[in-house]
């Protein structure tokens, strides 16, 4: 056996190799106490179960006092004395001269066998011991003991049930996690390609630039970690922009969602609580087995991981996509429309970085952020300023305004600090107007603040694409140094008919009719909607139609911090297609047809509120046509 000393100083046996034990010089005998309950007798026998004496003279007991299980409110040795009488022959009590001597506890017995004298009293003459024994043996105490034993049994049963519930709940959570992971892998399966169709890997300038910035500035590309977790430079100057930009390159197919992304980065139609309420709750096992399959409704773009699907491996695909996008975003390979889009993006970045820097300075000076009602005014000012001044110059103005607000706060300590931020905005308005009105006015360009690194997109556009220093370059000078644009790209809706082959009297009607022959569109129910638009061109206001259609996106229960849903994504894609065509051709009606053509790509099954089943593209096209012929009505609401 292995001997162990407990925290109370007792020596007990543990399973293991044999250790030599000897008989004690003073053996102890145990007999039941008359009138004692057999439960107490059992406890007493276990208490005085002596195996022998170790080589160091310690008595070795079979069990510890805690293993005996005495009643609450009593001490183990008192409970043992109420059940049995322990006696040591040939030893006399020093007080009552009783022999054999009756030790009151294990400690008293150990003192004797280790060479000490018997205690001053024994169990027979110690008044405290006798009162305790009498109390325990009292019939009323026996009833109390039985009640407490029942209570202990109930508590143990509750603890056992709690352990079962915890195990069952863990099993349900594990099963839900497994089902959720399966749903995620079905929603966003891993797709890698050995031979990408690069002619199809395209988007507008901003979307391509954001995707390229994501590849070049992410901590890794196999996969790209969640954009919201980047520690050094954010993807864009603010989270709202990053959120919408990530959704854009996802919809365009430039980057894909990694199926191993954290499960919390995907929106669910119903929660685990709702799923468990719908399951069979008869047992934990049944609940786990009958949980309904989770339904993914969208993603949280800043929380998901990304990868490039355009290659045999994630790293190779990222490298290939980098080369492809770098070539497309080279100003020398752009037409005039894409070059202008690049300049517009640069202006937007200067404006957004300026606001970001101003808010950083306000926060550094312990001033509150710009009020929501002042933000549109500030954004309008910065937009005008960004088209004439460099980022370093706008930083200069922002820094001056923040310092002026801090000085005003120090001069007027009792004034609300919100007023100081308003003062900063007012100062910015005045200084920005002066800077715009006097472009020759010298403003010392500020340097990039190491505490607030420029966003990845800003670095890419200025350093990587325009090859200029963002803190010093002005947009007019940048525009003057751009290479000559290439010839306009072919109209994607033009079939290439010669003029003598055109049957319609106007080029617009030819383009609109030919748009119906886009591959796949002619065999789609969407074609009839397009034909309806063609037959009633004179009655349709395309601009008003697209404004109303775009409002659908605001009625889809999708908030700025919510997941990007497939339906919202389809609305955005159709709207973007319309805007791109209008920007390239100036023809709003042609843009309306382009939106319908784009809808053909969204083949996800959809059921509207009336129970009609169709595809998502057909549903949205029907809404578009409804708006087109309802232009005389106010506040048209889509059927969702």
In words, what does this structure look like?
The chain is an alpha+beta fold. Among the domains are: about 1-135, no CATH class; about 335-480, no CATH class; about 500-630, no CATH class. The protein is built from 23 helices and twelve strands. It has helices at about 40-45, 65-70, 75-85, 105-115, 125-135, 140-185, 205-215, 240-250, 270-280, 285-290, 315-330, 335-365, 375-385, 390-410, 415-435, 455-465, 475-480, 505-515, 525-535, 540-550, 565-585, 590-600, 615-630; strands at about 1-5, 10-15, 30, 50-55, 60, 85, 255, 265-270, 295-300, 305, 605, 615. It has a four-stranded mixed sheet with strand order 1-2-5-4, with no helix packed on it. Strands 3-6 form a two-stranded antiparallel ribbon. Strand 4 and strand 5 (about 60) form a beta hairpin. The radius of gyration is 41 Å and the shape is elongated. It starts with a strand and ends in a 12-residue tail after the last helix. The relative contact order is 0.06. Residues about 1-5, about 490-525 and about 630-640 have low confidence and may be disordered.
